[in-house]
Write a structure and sequence with these properties.
This protein is α/β, with parallel strands linked by helices. Helix content is 48%, strand content 14%. It folds into two domains: 72 residues, no CATH class; 223 residues, Rossmann fold (3-Layer(aba) Sandwich). It is built from 13 helices and seven strands. The protein has a seven-stranded mixed sheet with strand order 3-2-1-4-5-7-6, sandwiched between helices. α1 crosses α8 and α2 packs across α4. The relative contact order is 0.13. The structure holds S-adenosylmethionine (SAM). Its EC number is 2.1.1.-.
């Protein structure tokens, strides 16, 4: 992927989270910091792109919008996977908080992107050693952006560049000071679909290998139907097309019925799996602003055997 595309997709997720924090109440996850990662020019460019995307994909809906702000809100709430980004982060942080009450002291944010946990959740972050792991290109962009903004990197944070398709996560974490004897929590959000399936399970095995028994992981994945255009929901097909166009195609979907067995083979025990219906019930009930659980996306909470 080109640098400009890495920057664009990293900032897009910050834009979506920032838009939600500024406009939607009650918040699913309030990320006041995300918006600060974008300049005014970048913000305006994303809004113009959203308006154009609505015109291109849903011309009738676009024609009914009173102004750009309404068009942007419609895209953010109804089409982009904002509801997924917010609810999976909320789920991971809820599970992390519970794990901390059981003694977890290390937190690995795998594929962190522009996640703002270190600044947004100081209440949790200050009590943890945090390892932000990401593809070297994405992480280099984030570090450049943080330095440009003058955000202070907390002393308990380590940045670990790893391409999960080429490098060993366990070796990189150990080299960064990860303590294999300390109960740990790993979040792995929005990444599995970008990896070939073998790399995804190799990563899970490495997590199980480097973390002591009882350590926990939360990840999300797309089911295999999301990859069948005649079975997938409209907005999932639309998103797949956008990602292909952007040069970031989704590669891997998993079968919800097979997850428990695949985790066991990887050294993990399935504690909980949330289907889109369960996610809807947990995070989107009684909302009337257009947010609802993204179709075909599942959340998993597992523990190291
Ligand atoms: C959609 S973003 C998710 C960011 C964040 N976790 C979230 O939930 O918003 C996907 C992340 O996967 C990372 N990623 C994609 N391919 C990767 C690879 N081969 N190795 C490591 N990270 C990768 C990207 O760098 C990016 O940070």
């Amino acid at each position: 992927m080109e640098v400009s595309q890495i920057k664009r997709s990293a900032l897009m997720s910050a834009f979506l989270r920032g838009h939600h924090a500024a406009h939607d109440h009650p918040a699913i996850l309030r990320d006041e910091w995300a918006r600060k990662l974008l300049s005014e020019e970048e913000l305006a460019a994303f809004e113009a792109t959203m308006e154009k995307a609505l015109e291109a994909a849903m011309p009738d809906q676009a024609a009914a919008m009173p102004d750009r702000a309404a068009a942007v809100a419609c895209m953010v709430r109804d089409y982009f996977p904002t509801s997924l980004f917010l609810s999976r982060a909320k789920y991971a942080e809820q599970m992390l908080e519970q794990a901390m009450s059981r003694g977890v002291k290390q937190y690995v944010i795998l594929g962190a992107g522009m996640d703002t946990f270190l600044w947004r959740r100081k209440d949790l972050a200050d009590r943890l050693d945090v390892f932000e792991v990401d593809h070297p290109a994405t992480q280099a962009f984030k570090q450049e952006r943080l330095a440009g903004l003058g955000w202070r990197i907390p002393q308990n944070a380590r940045f670990v560049p790893v391409d999960l398709t080429r490098q060993r996560l366990d070796e990189a974490l150990r080299a960064a000071g990860f303590d294999s004897g300390a109960p740990s929590f790993v979040s792995w959000l929005g990444v599995i679909h970008y990896l070939p399936q073998d790399d995804a399970f190799a990563t899970l095995r490495m997590i199980a290998g480097i973390c002591p028994e009882g350590s926990e992981i939360v990840f999300d994945y797309w089911d295999t139907e999301a990859f069948l255009p005649d079975r997938a929901a409209y907005r999932v097909n639309w998103m797949q097309e956008m990602l292909r166009y952007a040069g970031e195609p989704m590669l891997t979907g998993l079968d919800p019925a097979a997850i428990a067995g695949q985790l066991r083979e990887s050294g993990l025990h399935l504690r909980e799996q949330l289907s889109p219906e369960a996610i809807q019930e947990r995070y989107f009930m009684n909302r009337s602003d257009g947010y609802y659980a993204y179709e075909h996306a599942y959340f998993v909470h597992a523990a190291v055997l």
